[in-house]
Amino acid sequence: MLNELSIKNFAIIDELQVSFGKGLNIISGETGAGKSIIIGAVSLLLGDRATTEIIRTQADTATVEAVFDISANKLLRDKIATMGFPDEEELIIRRIISHTGKNKAFINGQMATLSNLASVSEWLINICGQREHQIILNAENHINILDEFGRCLPDRSAYEEIYNQYRQIRAQIEKLQDLSKSREEKTDLFKFQLKEIQDINPQPAEDAALADEKKVIANFQKLSGWANHAYDLLYGETDSAIVKLKEVQSQIKEIKKIDAGFQLADKDIDESFITLQETALALRDYGKNLFFDSERLALIDERLEVLNRLKRKHGGSLENVLRRKQEIEEDLNKVSSVEEELEKLNREEEIIKKNLRQKALELSKIRKQAANKLQEAVDKEIHELNMPYASFHVNFNKCAADKNVESFEQTGGDEIEFYLTANKGEDAKPLNSIASGGELSRIILALKNVLSRTGSVASIVFDEVDNGIGGAVAEIVGRKLKAVSANHQVICITHLPQIACFGDNHLHVSKKVTKGRTITFIKELDGEQKVEEISRMLGGVNVTETTREHAREMIKGSKASGF
Fold it and tell me: Quick one: CA dihedral 134, 138, 144, 147, positive or negative?
């Protein structure tokens, strides 16, 4: 239930706080005072998109915050906890809209996304205004409305599970069928691609190894010169490092003859001598083995070009070439076994289609039972709304039994649309072809009243419910709203006193100009103030005592009627 709503710098609202109670909450006031703006603010809390145009002139941000009592809704509290938000008996939702575009949303003080708000809001509030009218009038939504009313959703989920399996296997079959149609062409292509790679027979990192070898051959003279010069420095010259090291060994021996305490070991010098000798010999052999091989260089260039051509075709590296080779081999195996795989999938498909048809027929049967109950319930409601000859129909344009499995949808095999016979002697017509605004408002209210008995939403907001009606019909609408409020908190914006008199709580919205700015105010009315407001709604500007007495009688009558 919505307990508190705070709005700041939103449209013409400067700062406003309003409390809502249980039962039927009436919001009234002059046209343009800001009643629907309040509903727009609530819509923001439900995850609607926002633009900077809603921010009050000269303000940087607009803020909307609401406090909901969810202490009795364990399912919602569990859902909020699962989403990672604090589990409290009160749910606080806040939206901040900024000119900078850095809009923010919070659930119980924690940052949230619009998706989070939308997910939570479906348990909180349903706004029945122009948007809700469009949802109910859209034939695509009728099957969902019927399923929710008839509690068909568990059976529909069971159907959807098999439907998804069917769609998956159909996708596999279609893919293999396409493969089968072009099998010869694809087989030839795969074989050609594979033979090209096999003939070249690239090895892992072969291109890098060849590039290194090419570098050595191309730099033969430099390498040979460096190796020979290094050999001479170590061994070949008369004053080479080896010769000098021998002199060092001789000097150390002379030192040790005189000073036995000299700690340098002979083996250290011997090891250095051996290491230098081995290095010198390695350099000599390396230099001797170096030679310029023009034929080998040409072969390397040719091989690298072949490998580069393969790399350009298959992903830019030898790793990708080898990976593509493996893929082609797998594709060839698939192509060769496509008929066998198709036969296997076709057998599986037949079993799934049989199960899918059975589930669709079961779902269709349950829907027809639900349709009869919905028709009876809505007919009862619209007859009480002064449409005695009207008749509501749940029309099965097509049933699962009349369709092939291939034409089934995610929702089943039924095609459902709501029809209405508005007057005696007329044919039933689609609900969205109703011309009269008054008839439409009553049909929407009748549907909402019926559906509210099975819905899980805590609060229902009615905006424009009095569109096109008045007199006795308005009183009946008021009674219906009061009836809905027995199961849900109802917030209703209305201009009609016949509806307003049934309110448990009455809020009046007004506006005035202060310091050159228009400001919206909202006030909860007590007994006499409620009488005065209903009198204004009855009599306009000039309220007389007779009008006030009439208002008192209406309020008294609403209570005496059992509500």
Answer: positive
